[in-house]
Amino acid sequence: MNKLNEDGMTMIEVLAGIAVAAIFSASIYGVFISGLSLYEKTSSLGQARDETDYIATMIMNELYTQKPDFVRPFEADGRSGVMLTRFSEKEVENYLIEQPDTSDDTYIYFEQNRIVFDTITAEEKAAGSPAAGDSPDLVLTGDSIVLQPAESFIRMKCRTACPEGLPTGIIELNLSILPANSRVAEEMDPIQLRSDFGY
């Protein structure tokens, strides 16, 4: 009488085991990849929002630090933004108060996919005729964001056409951004950050 060796596995059992392992591996791989993709998206969006908040804070700080006497719209050579004008200190002599005809002008404007801060002082004006953008004080470009220049703006909020300058009013800021990570940016619409600042 021959006895069958029952210690091993049949070919069908081996194939069935491989098929079950392949199904589990595929589902685990899918969960891992979707989790990794979600982490990448969340991380990119968090960095983009942080950087956008930083840019908005820098603009607001400049506005409140300057304490402008007038704000004017600014447009030149494809650049658009606002010009903050702060008059020079008044001179008092023998009870007469005179306002010198000089001022410091700070320009905040968009140029392509960056935001430029440029201050031209009264002394610089007296020494020559500097133009906005000749020697910017600060240029903000995003490491983790890409500004969408067509939809981003900083401007005065006026019901009709803005006059030459206003001593008080509201400045509108709209930052349209996409994360710098191209894989994440391809799957989403630009994020809009909208703020209004009083001056």
TrEMBL record:
It is found in: Cell surface. The chain crosses the membrane at residues 14-39. The keyword Transmembrane applies. GO terms for cellular component: cell surface. The keyword Cell division does not apply. Keywords: Competence, Membrane, Transmembrane, Transmembrane helix. InterPro entries: N_methyl_site (IPR012902). It comes from the Bacteria. GO terms for biological process: establishment of competence for transformation. Coiled coil: none annotated. This is Prepilin-type N-terminal cleavage/methylation domain-containing protein. It comes from Jeotgalibacillus alimentarius.
